[in-house]
Amino acid sequence: MLALEDLKVHFEVGRKSKERTVLKAVDGVTLKLEKGEAFGLVGESGSGKSTIGKAALHLVPITDGRLVIDQEDLTRIDPRAEKKLRRKAQMVFQDPHSALNPRMTILRSVAEPLVLHTGMRGAELRNRVAELLEIVGLSSQFLYRYPHELSGGQKQRVCIARAIALNPDLLILDEPTSALDVSVQAQILEFLKKLQADFGLTYLFISHNLAVVRYLCRRVAVMYLGVIVEEGETEAVFNNPRHPYTKALLKAVPYPQAVQPDRGPPLAGDIPSPINLPSGCRFHTRCPERIDGVCDVETPPTVRDVSGLVRCHLFAGETLPGS
Ligand code: SF4
């Protein structure tokens, strides 16, 4: 369905005389999503996961690699072909409050992609928007309201209605619940799960919330500083994390009880700048299991098995369980 092959997204962030400063937001990512699956992409802020979502929709320029959707190479396309891409794939953003134009009624907001891409007008357009609102659990009473009259959860439902207006196969959901209240988050997640089942949608679900990804996604990839460090079936990765970064992320998930079990020290320090990447393994500056003289010098190998991969020197030369 969606295939990213050795995708690179580099930005030039400053130019002084002949020096070029390059920010390597995504640096050689390969991902394959099957039709109808929910695939999670997790990592800290600054890991590059949102950039992948934007690159898949040409919202940021692709530096190198390939973007393939439904076996069609869409890596380099002209503005007319962009329209075709919009019909295949859409994005739901993190903050529904800023995703909707405050001056436009809900009818106009949801109708916009239909007008641009299908030329639909009049009663047909209004009926289609009402139908979309019904799919996302809102009545036609919302048609003539403005965003400030809606709650956060209702606004996110409107954004989802707009995203599915053109019947896309792929939805890229970039932290779609993180700006919402906890009780509303649960409703939206439940709704997203039902929507996927009803319409056979493919999800690329980008989040730093591991519990949410576990609930929604069959497979997951863990990103750190522009590269995938672990990938596999969600339950396998959560029950038996292999990469030290995945272990650290899982350690940080709070237990639903008053007294938290002692799970050792949390991950130290901040994620380094993608402008000045660490040598060797990108995680070596924070890794509790690093091998001095190896991890800080040599790029770790990518070890694959039938269900995924891990990129770490600790697994060099190993055949992973299940391979
Ligand atoms: Fe840690 Fe070394 Fe593995 Fe990197 S390669 S995650 S530094 S053990």
Measure the end-to-end span: 24 Å
Shape: globular
Radius of gyration, rounded?
A: 21 Å
Helix-strand string = EEEHEEHEHHHHEHEHEEHHEE
How many strands in all?
Answer: 12
The secondary structure category is alpha/beta
Low-confidence stretches: none
Task: Please sum up the structure shown.
The chain has helices at 49-56, 79-88, 96-99, 106-118, 122-135, 152-163, 182-199, 210-216, 234-239, 244-251, and strands at residues 2-16, 19-33, 38-42, 64-69, 72-73, 89-92, 170-174, 202-207, 219-224, 227-233, 302-305, 308-311. The chain contains ten helices and twelve strands.
Give structural notes.
The chain has 323 residues and is of the alpha/beta class. It has two domains: 33-59 and 75-243, Rossmann fold (3-Layer(aba) Sandwich), CATH 3.40.50; 278-323, no CATH class. Helix content is 31%, strand content 24%. The chain is built from ten helices and twelve strands. The protein has helices at 49-56, 79-88, 96-99, 106-118, 122-135, 152-163, 182-199, 210-216, 234-239, 244-251, and strands spanning 2-16, 19-33, 38-42, 64-69, 72-73, 89-92, 170-174, 202-207, 219-224, 227-233, 302-305, 308-311. An eight-stranded mixed β-sheet has the order 6-7-8-3-9-10-12-11, sandwiched between helices. It has a four-stranded antiparallel β-sheet with strand order 2-1-4-5. Strand 9 and strand 10 (227-233) form a beta hairpin. Helix 4 crosses helix 5 (122-135), helix 4 packs parallel to helix 6 (152-163) and helix 6 (152-163) runs parallel beside helix 7. The radius of gyration is 21 Å and the shape is globular. The protein starts with a strand and ends in a 12-residue tail after the last strand. The model has no long low-confidence stretch (mean pLDDT 91). The structure holds iron/sulfur cluster. Iron/sulfur cluster is lined by residues 243-244, 281, 283-284, 287, 289-291, 295, 300, 312-314.
